[in-house]
Amino acid sequence: MGVILIRYGELFLKGDNKCYFEKVLLNNIRHSLDGFTFKLKKLQGRYLLSDFEEKNELQIINKLQKVAGLHSISSAYEMNTDIEEIKKYVGTLTFNNTTFKVIVNRADKTFDIQSTNFAAILGGVVLDNNPTAKVDVHNPQKELYVDIREHGKTYIFSDIIKCMGGMPVSTSGRGLVMISGGIDSPVAAYMMTKRGMSLSAIHFHSFPYTGVLAKEKVIKLTNIVSEYAGHINLYVVSFTKIQEAIHKNCKCEYMIIIMRRIMMRIACRLAKEKGIGGIITGESLAQVASQTIESITVTNAVATIPVLRPLIGFDKIEIMDIARKIGTYETSILPYEDCCTVFLPDHPLIKPKVRLVEEEESKLDIENLINEALSTIETIFIPVEI
Ligand code: ATP
Ligand code: MG
């Protein structure tokens, strides 16, 4: 019978909490496969997915690769642990013009033949049935795994497909990701999801300076992130009045840093209101003027809850690689304006000082601006059909 073996990663670090983590992980797997028929069973140290429709297997594998906490999966053939049956099945496999190695894992110690001996016997079976195949134990083109488990079943497979790793979503609290239309923030969201965070998201837009397409792009990016994170409430905040007020009243080189601080204040206020434990941003040290340690210090000074910056030590190239892998890159590079590109000064401050920024901010009625922005928030439940 065709089955899928599912291995999980780090959960073993969790001692007494292991049961709780396993329960959440099982739930998340089930949830990710909503709409498919299947059976899910726990074996020692892994799960077994069976009784699915064969035509759905690839789609199921694809979904499982997006479940945080899973380490790897294999599409396998399940059979009773019977030496003759196993030999017969291995004899039906084709290994044309290829080098191979058989790897036997004997979790069932009552099985009388030692792993290496049984691997040699099965290697002989392959050679008998595939005259063009050759054994290569060091660098084989193909590996054949024979996993003899405790409960009288044996699993035979060739591929180990890597999954996300990390911790099950919702075992590490909830973060509010500040999501722009750029490359970095969706990757930051993914990184925290991978560590088990559930997500909410906040986006600031400057209609009509930024168009409808810019907002749709953010909705699309949040949709892609939700394939990993599950449901996300996306809070869309109108930033136009605030930007106009800063532009009108403050020195232009302070534009970006003041914007950042107001965004941070609004994000923290919303997070507290919703019981969210931390803010997530896509900042990476020294990538742009607003991401120097001085700028981060000045922005952080108004934060009232922890700000997580999972990309802080990443190069742009590394971030782009992850964006491609998770499927956000192509959307992120669509050329719509972000509100940060509106009223952009020629020379933003690279090393702002808190005292001077506060002096500049005192020209604004910040409290009123924030309250108005908060009172006009639009909430979008993601995923949505787009
Ligand atoms: P990104 O690729 O995520 O847009 P970036 O390299 O353009 O990042 P900045 O524009 O300096 O960097 O933004 C830094 C971070 O601030 C972003 O990663 C994001 O978390 C947040 N941010 C920027 N613009 C917005 C916005 N319009 N709405 C919500 N958050 C934003
Ligand atoms: Mg950006």
CATH architecture group name of the largest domain? 3-Layer(aba) Sandwich
Q: What is the CATH C level class of the largest domain, in words?
A: Alpha Beta
Give the distance, in angstroms, between the N- and C-terminal Cα atoms. Answer: 38 Å
Structural class determined from secondary elements: alpha/beta
Rg, rounded, reads 27 Å
CATH superfamily of the largest domain: HUPs
Count of discrete structural domains = 2
Overall pLDDT: 93
CATH topology of the largest domain: Rossmann fold
Major sheet size, sense and barrel closure: 9 strands, mixed
Number of strands: 15
Bound molecules: adenosine-5'-triphosphate, magnesium ion
Low-confidence stretches: none
What gross morphology would you assign?
A: elongated
Order of helices and strands: EHEEHEHEHEEEEEHEHEHHEHEHHHHE
Instruction: Give the proportion of residues in helices.
Output: 25-40%
Overview of the structural elements:
- The chain has 386 residues and is α/β, with parallel strands linked by helices.
- It has two domains: 2-162, VC0802-like, CATH 3.30.2130.30; 174-382, Rossmann fold.
- The chain contains 13 helices and 15 strands.
- The strands form two sheets. Strands 1, 2, 3, 4, 5, 6, 7, 8 and 9 form a nine-stranded mixed β-sheet that branches.
- Helix 5 (184-194) links the parallel strand 10 (174-178) and strand 11.
- It is elongated.
- It starts with a strand and ends with a strand.
- Residues 180, 182, 338, 340 line the site of magnesium ion (MG).
- Adenosine-5'-triphosphate (ATP) binds at residues 178-180, 182-185, 202-204, 281-283, 287-288, 290-291, 338-340.
